[in-house]
Design a protein that fits this description.
There is one protein chain. It contains 16 helices and no strands. With 452 residues, the protein is mainly alpha-helical. α2 packs antiparallel against α8 and α3 packs antiparallel against α5.
Length: 452
């Protein structure tokens, strides 16, 4: 077999061709996240707060799906680089199996526990009712997101990122179109309020999931899945989660962090919770292109690591770091200069503007370091050192950010709480530099001998 393009195409062009489709599709998805909240905000501020409070559970689902997908992506790409096609096929089969197990668990636990989750966070009956309805629908229909993400990771691992742009883009566009139709009851459709927003999300995810299955079957010829006599392979699953569990933990920690921050800022006012939710939507819009770049980089790094091609590996990381930093600087500038206008998209009241403008301007200072941190963390994962990425995430969110937010809140000034974000990102930046240098000396530098 001729070598996969990840081992021979010029690195800059390879990153561009693999990442650009995912950057575009993730921008569309991020736009959907923002637009979805804009429509929900038209109902009332309570609905927007409910969606913000639901975010940790939705993020937990994505954490499980993406984390498992990262493990599958890294092992599959590395196996292809080593030309171990049997392991590559088994990795894909076991990855799909794990996605199905995960979605069934969230359908049951998430649906039954939605009401209790909101009652823990607020005494406002309307927010509890809005949130329970929204989250139950999202959990019942979560199969779409799990299947979509796993199938997209199979396409990414073999360099077919164009098709992931199609699946993600289609799902997001359907969601954006259905949001106003189902929320406000346009045409023959009934007015469903917040339930309409949840249904639009689920329908978009299911369509994307079905489409990703079809595209894998038709175009992904590097992977051949055979379900005849399939049995879960404990060794393969262990290797998937050796990389995947740190990613799951890292993403799940953001759910814990968001839950904790909701409690801290909510103690001041529920409007602060809505502001935090709005910020997270804008953060996703800025971060999504980095994640798209990331998803294009991981299989390239993993493949060339397996193929022992040091120069290609290093160049890929360098290009992605520079690109990520530039994107983050643009995002920071946009939020710094247009915070009031951005908040007004969500029908911001005077009190929300008073809280939100300084909040957005302070938090986005963390963007100065976040781009570098994201790329380095994913590089560590692609090289099989996901534990170090997990340590960065744990320290950033649980050791620094949440405790700092709590301690700053004791001063009784809400504005001080927002400084916990840039403080945590600076600490993560220092750790990423340390770990990257360590892995370069231990893993990457010795590869030169293998190339000679």
């Amino acid at each position: 077999m001729s070598e996969n393009k990840m081992g021979v195409m010029p690195v800059g062009k390879l990153i561009f061709t693999m990442s650009l489709p995912m950057v575009l599709s993730m921008l569309i998805q991020a736009l959907y996240n923002v637009v979805d909240s804009i429509f929900v905000a038209q109902i009332d501020e309570g609905s927007l707060t409910a969606v913000s409070l639901a975010f940790p559970i939705q993020n937990l689902m994505i954490a499980m799906a993406v984390g498992t997908g990262v493990g599958v992506n890294a092992l599959l790409s590395r196996s292809l680089g080593e030309r171990n096609f049997d392991t590559a096929n088994k990795t894909a089969e076991n990855g799909v199996f794990l996605a199905v197990v995960s979605l069934l668990a969230f359908m049951v636990v998430g649906t039954l526990g939605a009401g209790a989750f909101f009652r823990v966070q607020t005494d406002d009956a309307s927010i509890v009712a809005y949130g329970t309805t929204y989250l139950q629908i999202c959990c019942i229909g979560c199969g779409g997101i799990f299947i979509e993400i796993m199938m997209e990771r199979l396409l990414q691992a073999t360099g077919r990122t164009f098709y992931t742009m199609i699946t993600q883009g289609a799902g997001a566009v359907i969601n954006i179109v259905l949001d106003p139709v189902l929320i406000f009851g346009l045409g023959p459709f009934p007015k469903l309020d917040i339930a309409g927003a949840a249904l639009a999300t689920v329908i978009g995810q299911v369509v994307a999931g079905v489409l990703s299955v079809i595209l894998n079957h038709k175009y992904n010829h590097d992977v051949e899945m055979s379900w005849k006599g399939f049995r879960p392979d404990g060794h393969i699953i262990a290797r998937i989660y050796a990389v995947g569990v740190p990613s799951i933990v890292m993403n799940a920690l953001s759910s814990v962090m968001t839950f904790g921050l909701n409690q801290i800022v909510g103690a001041f006012t529920s409007t602060a919770t809505a502001v935090l939710g709005i910020y997270l939507k804008f953060q996703s819009f800025v971060f999504m292109p980095i994640f798209g770049l990331n998803n294009g980089m991981v299989p390239i790094v993993a493949y060339n690591y397996g193929a022992r091609k040091k120069e290609r590996l290093v160049k890929a990381v360098q290009i992605c770091v520079v690109t990520a930093v530039v994107i983050m600087l643009i995002g920071m500038a946009a939020i710094q200069f247009f915070s009031p206008q951005l908040l007004l998209l969500f029908k911001a009241s005077e009190s929300m503007l008073a809280i939100g403008v300084p909040a957005l301007k302070i938090i986005c200072l963390s963007f100065l370091f976040a781009g570098f941190n994201i790329i380095v963390s994913s590089t560590l994962q692609a090289l099989g050192h996901g534990f170090l990425s997990m340590m960065v995430s744990i320290i950033r969110q649980m050791v620094v950010l949440l405790p700092a937010a709590f301690l700053l809140s004791l001063a009784g000034e809400l504005e001080l709480v927002w400084w916990s974000f840039p403080i945590a990102e600076v600490v993560a930046f220092v750790l990423c530099i340390f770990f990257l240098r360590k892995i370069y000396c231990q893993v990457i530098a010795p590869m030169a001998k293998a190339e000679d």
